[in-house]
Design brief:
Rossmann fold, about 30% strand, Galactose-bd-like_sf, 7-stranded antiparallel sheet, 8-stranded parallel beta barrel, TIM Barrel, alpha+beta, signal, single chain, 5 domains
Length: about 1050
């Protein structure tokens, strides 16, 4: 029921429209009404869709139609991305079915496409993120010799026998700008098979060698090379090893483009290339200020006109760059001043160690930069030198990110959002604070809450309240991904602290050449999902988008608070994985995040009253594990933190390792500090095992939300001092459980001083007072039951006093109250037996038994099937609109999957219309004396979507993992009708048409396997009517019941 007593409550949303920003000034929060705006959050806190536009041949009218559809589905905006066939491929000849000289990214046509998208966004009250370049946003049109383009370092080598000499031109001379030459003694060599896996291609295998170099023999001989590349060098004899190796390195432009040059396209005629703007887009250097300025200068000098700049400021949300997916274009990551910068940052000359770079190549498709890979005879095979190189890359990339962030704020009155470090060997935690809106991607973070915590903690510490997630990409589920599957990932993201969702994605719905039904599809069907009206469920997406909006509304309010920080220091975040694999911290209710020593210099990284970052996460303890890698600056800060009263916990022992060669010189100092710390009062050394138990018993800290449950619950806490509310999101992790299974019960305990508890229902928008709890002067305990993979939001209103009317309830009984302090409330009994309560005034209250639950039967089902049009893509009247055909009516005594109802429904996509009737109140003899005050409908679980009407009245949106709703207000005495509409994905129809599908002339049979056959469609579990008796309680604030409670 709606909550009227909090309608005037206010909360401030930190995320605000860019147009209220003034230069680089902080965002001023908008005032939102809790009652009204939780039910209907503003666009700024609603989810976005990534909107894929194939190129600038698209229609402005179709863009407007798509934007209107996005608005209608309940999103707050979209990311505009010119996809350009994922760059157009880098092969020669390149691939396109349109004229990219005329319609390429950055051209006048693309400027007008961008303008049309902004204007549509403004017309429909949405916000728009805008990619800074084509494909992944990582490049712009530029002159071929422009400063700031991505560079590569190409290697060559030659062998020299013992006692031999080299008197010749360096191998590879002329391949690029000469960088260096070096020599080394080869100690051993063996045949090896190497592989590389470029994006979206098969793995390539190469025959090569694995060679070990004598570390002390490495020598830079660049100074001996003449201006014409000649080198005259004699080599000594040796009693060890097999030969000497001469290395030469050259710097050149990578040649990799975010959009290929039209001059390389042969499928259709291309217009003449009159200048660099028509000649495709180069990837820019992501390790220099010059690389950022190349992008900025194009926008400022060639792209933004006055009208477009004004539109950016009015409805532009964020300037955006995707993950750095251009590894196939380089051998190693390089920038013109790499060696100078390395020496300045790290403190030694890296030149002679360049051969080691190719032992960890990028995604080069082949041939590899060298079939030979080189390692040293050091214990770590030279990895510590490479780690110093990765540290340098991290620092240089941070300059790039900071330059774009400053420009976005100052010039565009916006923020810059980027997928920091994703796909590159750098330290993620160090560079997250450089971006105004850091972004992750669910694909790379692999549904791991622990991984999200690694990303969100540095962002929160840096004051980044909004953390974005490109969410939903799953391999080979382009048209089969269900909405419950999609929001399962959303739940993991939010409980991990990543609180802004950009759903992946919405493809342009209009005509595109040589593309068949169901329409333009990105990545050649390799990744999910293709959202939009082409999906049978699109009409019902708003239930899920509104849920996401409400979850984000809460998850973005106030400040994230976290119990415990873990030390993390990894300079090569190629892949994200869980770093703490035990569930004991979650089981106890502890929230935790990962902080790098690289974050210790942030403004809010200080200790006050024994709390780290009191204005941010307010960590109560800092955990360092025995196998963590340390830095001198980091342990110095740890010592300072401990001195200021922060508990430091060494889990499993004191660490004794460092990552990089530059850190090795500090080992003695690090050992000394750690030894001194072990004697400090606030430092605890605990054995491996239950960390949570050690934190509670040995360190003396407790979680903000203590949890006791028979499942596995995760918590996420937000504290909003402005509105005087605190929020905890609970998630019951039942990963792997079958649909309808995984329910768990338990209780959460918080500080009593937090105030009155409420449930914020993200599915309906209702705010419901909690009256079942126990509290004393210190703590308040609330019983909770969650379905498998269900979330719940508990809110605490600081300015209200908790009113625990009942300490426990029997299963099947619940309480309904208008507010925490309302003088009356209701008890609803769904049980066949009467239930008895005692009031504090010695009054006995008996709840009448409820009528028996009724499994609804005798259903009628009509299926509207969606199929491909019976035309070819070359027909003049060809359309991407599916043909919709209604089946004859099926009579169903009970519910079962479509494939079991009739062979004609096997592999069918579409919409199912179920209807039946029932009598109210129930009329069986056994129910004659039972209470029938009202009833709920229970669908058990939902496969994709389900919407319910009772007597023509639409029922509130249903949680797919706990689809129960009260229908009492819609019931009439006598005959009642119920209609349930379910919608499937388009996957089954796509599967049936698979052999005829192509995208831009490419048959999808060459690019992806056919969609999997759906295991089940429609309503497959019993639908039940659950009557209840309702008893109003007045003048009795404390009821007691002597059985275990479940609410």
């Amino acid at each position: 029921m709606k909550l009227s007593t909090v309608d005037a409550m206010k909360l401030f949303a930190i995320a605000c429209l860019p147009l209220v920003l003034a230069s680089a000034a902080p965002c001023k929060p908008e005032v939102f009404d809790v009652g009204a705006n939780f039910a209907n959050p503003p666009a700024s806190v609603r989810p976005f869709f990534r909107y894929w536009v194939p190129d600038a041949t698209v229609s402005d009218d179709i863009i407007n139609k798509d934007v209107e559809a996005i608005k209608r589905a309940g999103a707050g905006g979209f990311e505009l991305l010119g996809f350009y066939n994922y760059g157009g491929t880098q092969s020669e000849p390149a691939f396109s079915v349109t004229d990219w000289a005329k319609y390429g990214w950055g051209t006048e046509a693309w400027r007008n496409t961008t303008r049309a998208a902004f204007r549509s966004s403004k017309e429909h009250g949405l916000l728009m993120d805008y990619a800074l370049g084509p494909n992944q946003g990582s490049g712009v049109p530029a002159h071929e010799d422009a400063e700031g383009l991505m560079l590569d370092l190409v290697p060559f080598n030659a062998t020299v026998p013992f006692g031999g000499s080299f008197n010749d031109t360096l191998p590879g001379w002329g391949s690029g700008k000469f960088v260096s030459a070096s020599i080394a003694l080869v100690l051993e060599s063996r045949v090896a098979n190497w592989s590389a896996t470029p994006g979206f291609e098969n793995t390539f295998y190469y025959n090569g060698t694995r060679q070990v170099l004598a570390s002390d023999s490495l020598e830079d001989v660049s100074s001996a090379v003449s201006g014409d590349g000649h080198l005259d060098l004699n080599f000594p004899s040796s009693d060890t090893g097999i030969e000497f190796r001469l290395f030469a390195f050259y710097q050149k432009r990578s040649g990799y483009r975010e959009q290929v040059s039209p001059e390389k396209i042969v499928q259709i005629p291309q217009s003449p290339v009159d200048g660099y703007v028509q000649n495709g887009s180069w990837v820019n250097d992501h390790f220099s200020e010059a690389g950022a300025k190349l992008l900025i200068d194009f926008w400022e000098d060639s792209f933004l006109d006055l009208d477009l700049r004004e539109l950016v400021r009015e409805v532009g949300q964020y300037a955006w760059e995707d993950s750095m997916e251009f590894g196939t274009g380089v051998a190693v990551w390089w920038t013109p001043k790499m060696l100078e910068q390395f020496r300045s940052i790290i403190g030694y000359d890296f030149t002679k160690y360049l051969p080691l770079l190719y032992s960890h190549v990028s995604q080069t498709p082949g041939p590899l930069p060298s079939p030979d890979r080189f390692f040293t005879d050091d214990e770590d095979e030279g990895m510590s030198y490479l780690n110093d190189y990765y540290k340098t890359l991290t620092t240089l990339n941070r300059v790039y990110l900071e330059t774009l962030q400053a420009w976005a704020q100052n010039a565009l009155q916006s923020e810059y959002t980027a997928q920091v470090v994703y796909n590159l060997p750098m330290e993620m935690a160090a560079n997250i604070p450089a971006v105004g809106i850091p972004e992750t991607e669910s694909l790379g973070f692999a549904h791991l809450v622990d991984a999200y915590r690694q990303f969100s903690a540095p962002a929160n510490l840096a004051g980044r309240n909004i953390i974005s997630n490109e969410l939903g990409a799953v391999q080979l589920e382009a048209y089969t991904q269900t909405l419950p599957e999609l929001i399962w990932d959303t739940k993991l993201s939010i409980v991990g602290g990543v609180n802004r969702i950009v759903y992946h994605g919405y493809p342009y719905s209009g005509y595109y050449p040589n593309t068949t039904w169901p329409g333009y599809t990105t990545f050649y069907y390799r990744f999910s999902a293709m959202h939009g009206p082409r999906q049978p469920a699109w009409e019902y997406y708003d239930d899920y988008m509104n849920w996401t909006a409400r979850m984000q509304h809460i998850a973005q309010s106030g400040v994230a608070k976290t119990d415990v920080a873990f030390w993390v220091y990894d300079v090569t975040t190629y892949e994200i994985f869980s770093r703490y694999n035990s569930s004991d911290m979650d089981d106890a209710g502890f929230t935790y995040g990962y902080i790098s020593p690289s974050n210790f210099d942030l403004e809010d990284a200080y200790v006050q009253d024994g709390i780290l970052a009191p204005e941010r996460q307010a960590y109560k303890a800092f955990v360092v594990r025995q196998n963590d890698s340390m830095t001198l600056a980091g342990v110095q800060k740890l010592e300072e933190f401990a001195s200021n009263g922060l508990p430091i916990v060494f889990y499993g022992g004191i660490p004794d390792s460092v990552l990089s060669r530059s850190d090795e010189k500090d080992l003695e100092s690090i050992y000394s500090i750690l030894e001194n710390m072990s004697k400090m009062e606030k430092v605890h050394i605990v054995p491996e095992g239950s960390l949570a138990r050690s934190l509670i018993s040995d360190v003396g800290i407790t979680p903000k939300v203590a949890v006791e449950t028979d499942g596995r619950w995760m918590t996420y806490w937000r504290e909003d001092e402005v509105s005087a509310h605190s929020y905890v999101t609970l998630y019951n992790d039942a990963s792997g459980a079958s649909l309808g299974e995984g329910r768990s019960s338990g209780k959460v305990t918080v500080a009593a001083a937090l105030g009155a508890p409420y449930v914020y229902d993200a599915w309906t928008g209702e705010v419901i007072a909690v009256r079942v709890c126990q509290h004393d002067e210190e703590n308040m305990t609330i019983p909770v039951s969650l379905a498998g993979n269900q979330t719940a939001i508990l809110a605490f209103h600081h300015d209200e006093t908790p009113q625990c009317s009942l300490d426990r309830l029997p299963e099947g009984v619940s309480v309904r109250a208008a507010s925490a302090a309302a003088p009356t409330f209701e008890l609803l009994n769904r049980n066949r037996a009467a239930e008895t309560f005692e009031c504090h005034v010695e009054q006995t209250i008996k709840l009448p038994a409820a009528a028996s639950a009724v499994e609804l039967s005798d259903w009628t089902l009509i299926v509207e099937s969606w199929t491909a049009p019976n035309k070819t893509s070359t027909d003049a009247d060809y359309t991407y609109e599916a043909v919709k055909t209604n089946s004859s009516a099926f009579s169903l005594p009970s519910l079962q999957p479509w494939s079991e109802i009739s062979d004609s429904l096997r592999n069918t996509s579409g919409v199912g219309f179920y209807s039946t009737n029932f009598t109210w109140p129930p009329g069986s003899a056994s129910d004659a004396q039972a209470g029938s005050s009202g009833a709920e409908i229970d669908l058990a679980y939902i496969l994709n979507t389900a919407r319910v009407w009772v007597n023509g009245h639409q029922v509130a949106p249903l949680d797919p993992v706990a689809p129960v709703a009260d229908i009492s207000s819609f019931l009439v005495d006598g005959d009642n009708s119920i209609t349930i509409v379910t919608a499937t994905t388009l996957g089954a129809a796509v599967r049936e048409y698979w052999e005829q599908i192509s995208v831009a002339g490419v048959p999808v049979t060459l690019t992806a396997p056919a969609p999997r056959e759906e295991a089940a469609q429609g309503l497959v579990a019993p639908v039940k009517l659950i009557p209840y008796s309702s008893t109003k309680i007045e003048g009795c604030y404390n009821l007691s019941y002597r059985r275990d409670e479940v609410i």
